[in-house]
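Sequence in, structure out.
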Amino acid sequence: MLTTDRDLRLAVLIDADNVPYSNLQGMLEEIAKYGSPTFKRIYGDWTNPRLAGWKSALLENAITPVQQYSYTSGKNATDSAMIIDAMDILYTGRVDGFCIVSSDSDFTRLAIRLREAGMKVFGMGEQKTPISFTSACDRFIYIEILRKSADTNGSDQSEAPEIRSKSTVKKRAPKTDSSDKKLKNLIAGSINDVADEDGWVFLGDLGNLLIKKRPSFDSRNYGFNKLLPLIKSMDAFEVDERETGKSNIKHVYVRNR
């Protein structure tokens, strides 16, 4: 379920140190569902051979690289550069929201601050991303669910070994078990929160509430492209597809059994 207008002006800021470059096109296509990128910047120490794989991807997608030297070993200067630029962009008033592409919890406070300023904040990173960052965003999308087509085409094989090994540290495969008790409890509780007197809730309202409660919620994490098939796969819920009077248009309602 999308909760934003497609015309939102977004600033897309990418942390090259903490996300792999494979399937960058898939990430940008996902971002396009939520708005139009007004700024597209990527941050890293481009003198480091480890980031060499990004070069062609940046040219193909018109992303502006921002050089940030690693002045001290073990310290990530990229974070500071991204945070400063984000605040500069915020004060220009030329965007409606931000997309922060990183798996680093250091951006948690930035996401909170941007939302306090009335910005929509979308996060994107690997499943190793700490919950503090995912929860600070309006919505968080895991990169793993966007990799399916890239894996099919063998795109990941072109990734530098150093990047690939870093990006797979502590990686967890997306859950595909639709009988997960925590998932059922989340959906059932959300239905109770907004249901009418007969226990029914409009599917769109349910989807919006699920994302508000858990920004990283996405049906694709459980192996389903949409929310309705996910709900239908569980025996804990009833589904009612109601005719609207218009041809081929139905409103879907859900309730607990």
